[in-house]
Write a structure and sequence with these properties.
Alpha-Beta Plaits; about 25% strand; 5-stranded antiparallel β-sheet; Ribosomal Protein S5, domain 2; 9 strands
Length: about 300
């Protein structure tokens, strides 16, 4: 069995759900994923719950690119630390990593916006996204965050603002993983809660990513009618977190704490372990842009 190519990406969390205002932003998280292209089927189970990889191949071909070998003889392998269907951008990350694996396997050199465009096309083809997930896909492909216009068909032209986000060395991120969502909300579910998303948009425009995360989470609670998420986020804030809220349209709660407050971090972890032992708490951090990303 030969590895023909491999590609990596990472998860992210929402700062602004694009269904709320038509503008979206997500922040990169250190939740890695690796996709490999093989010439024979792996013995390990393929983790592609939404059947995205065939759509990645179709989007790749539609963009005018060739496959490393005959498509029928090409197989995928996925290793991921991103909980699926919880709002942590597992689908966007999978598509980005798969496109990078195709690039690696064929010696194709693409600009970052071209990788994002193919990954977005794959998600649209799979019909798993409300808004195109453009902001999510940018965040899974690079560090920091980008504010995007979800109604702009040109992925590169749709980027309105960008930022490094909260510094990795200053903040601890805890993710309360509650399992896959049972249903995805509709666009209409977000309309009554537009004011919360407008406030989150204002915070993003002012560069206040942590304020946006919390405000966006309150809007998502209303749209998804997930009152338990509201309680879980409030518990974190009461216990000393600087930001907390559900992410995406999923179930996970993202909590941000100053990294030097070790006592607060331990207290919050202990709180969820004792009060909600059925949930997993994942420790991670933000990913800021690399120097070369910032220069670009």
């Amino acid at each position: 069995m030969a590895v023909l190519g491999k590609g990596a990406a990472h998860g992210a969390c929402s700062l602004l759900h694009a269904a709320g205002t038509g503008y979206g932003a997500s922040m990169a998280l250190d939740l890695p994923i690796l996709v490999r292209i093989l010439d024979k089927k792996s013995k390990r189970e393929l983790h592609d719950e939404d059947g995205l990889l065939p759509h990645v191949a179709d989007a790749w071909k539609n963009a005018g690119h060739e496959f490393p070998i005959d498509k029928a003889d090409m197989h995928w392998a996925v290793q991921s630390r991103i909980p699926v269907r919880e709002g942590l951008k597992s689908s966007s990350a999978l598509c980005v990593a798969a496109v990078r694996a195709l690039c690696d396997s064929t010696g194709t050199d693409l600009e970052l916006h071209e990788i994002v465009a193919i990954a977005v096309d794959a998600q649209v083809r799979a019909e798993i996204t409300l808004t195109g997930s453009i902001d999510d896909t940018w965040a899974c492909a690079t560090g920091g965050w980008k504010l995007i216009n979800a109604n702009e068909p040109d992925v590169a032209q749709g980027v309105l603002l960008e930022g490094d986000g909260p510094a990795r060395e200053d903040w601890k991120v805890l993710v309360v993983s509650r399992g896959p969502r049972e249903a995805r909300p509709t666009l209409e579910d977000f309309l009554p809660h537009q004011q919360q998303f407008i406030q989150a948009l204002n915070a993003v425009q002012e560069g206040n990513a942590l304020v946006a995360l919390t405000l966006n989470g309150r809007g998502v609670v209303g749209a998804t009618k997930d009152q338990r998420a509201r309680i879980l986020a409030n518990d974190a804030l009461v216990n000393g977190a600087r930001a907390a809220g559900p992410t995406g349209s999923g179930t996970a709660i993202v909590i941000v704490i100053p990294i030097q407050l070790e006592g607060v971090i331990k207290r919050i972890k202990s709180w969820y372990a004792n009060k909600h032992p059925e949930f997993d708490v994942i420790e991670t951090s933000f990913i800021n842009p690399e120097k070369k990303d910032a220069e670009e």
